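Protocol step 4 of 5: obtain the predicted structure for the target chain.
Materials: sequence only (see below). No template structures provided, no constraints applied. The aim of this step is simply to have a reference model before the mutagenesis design in step 5. Sequence pasted as it appears in the construct record:
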Amino acid sequence: MSRIFLVSLCFFSLFFCVNSQAENGNIYFIEDVAVSVSAKSPSESRNKAVATARRDAFLILLTRLEKNISLANVVSNDEISEMVMSEQIDGEKIAGNAYFATFNILFAKDFVDHILAKKNPANVVPKNIPNSLVIPVKKSSSDDGLGGENILWEEGNDWKMAVVKYADAKRGVLESKLIIPDADIENLSVLGKDNISSLNFSGFAPMLERYNANKIHILFFSQNQLDGKIIVEIASLNRAQKKQSKLSFINSDGMAQNVIMDKIAARVVDYIASLQKSEVQPEALFVKLQVNFDNLEKWLNLKSKIENSGLASEVFIESLAKDHANILLKHPNSAINLSESLGKIGLNCQQKAENFFIIF
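Step 4 output (structure tokens):
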């Protein structure tokens, strides 16, 4: 009996503390952080959800403190946990290996100040250029002189071997890592020769998370058997867009196939590196959305459309009520007409003020 009373008392104390902080308008108290996570087991899903909720809440806290949210890139999950004074979990649901819940998180000001002081941008070199996945694909020869079927993971992909060799030689010179995935079970379950040409950015999500990457460069190598002309088509994907480029080569010196392939691999890797260096991140624009809904199904549908629209580099759920949610959108390009872009993905919106829209 006393044990049950003690647990109830602890829960009541935590609940009272959290709610009293909310009523006082404490900027270190972040409410209604909704998370939905799936993993290999229910316990792993819950642990991942807690870490995700704390990080999302920390990002919201950074915006309230008017700090650069890139600071979050150099703060570990363990450090964020150290900053958490208390947290309340509402609406916890487990379905199979999926976990859903809403978190109210209170950060300790002194711990936040201490860790942010350690992460002062003057003392930290930010990682502005994340990892990129590079996937070399060779098109097999065909009777009509054009490329045949895709060769991706197979041993006959000598194009991949050439790219790996040069990428390894450039390691430590390039500003970011170019990662060529191995042919293991995890990667084979995501990517194959039949879907490599049609897979969109979200389809690569398991590999992107595994290799801590946010860009993909697919290198299609083909050689015309009639005139010997070699073409490398490059499909570059990120969350916002897909770019296509093409490089052409002619073996006018009659070099051996392995020699010319090595030289082309060097040119292509240098080209990808140049793309990364030339990328200039536009000044981020933060936009607030009030998303109105009648039921849970509509909310999940609207939330999915916003998250998968490619219009935002980051999406933060500030609060969630029974009929509306407040979302902070980190909009990557201020030149885009956001109202028009939201309409194109089937969202009805009304602009109420500068950088504030209502979705219904």
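Step 4 remarks: The radius of gyration is 25 Å. Residues 1-24, 122-128, 280-284 have pLDDT under 50 and may be disordered.
Proceed to step 5.
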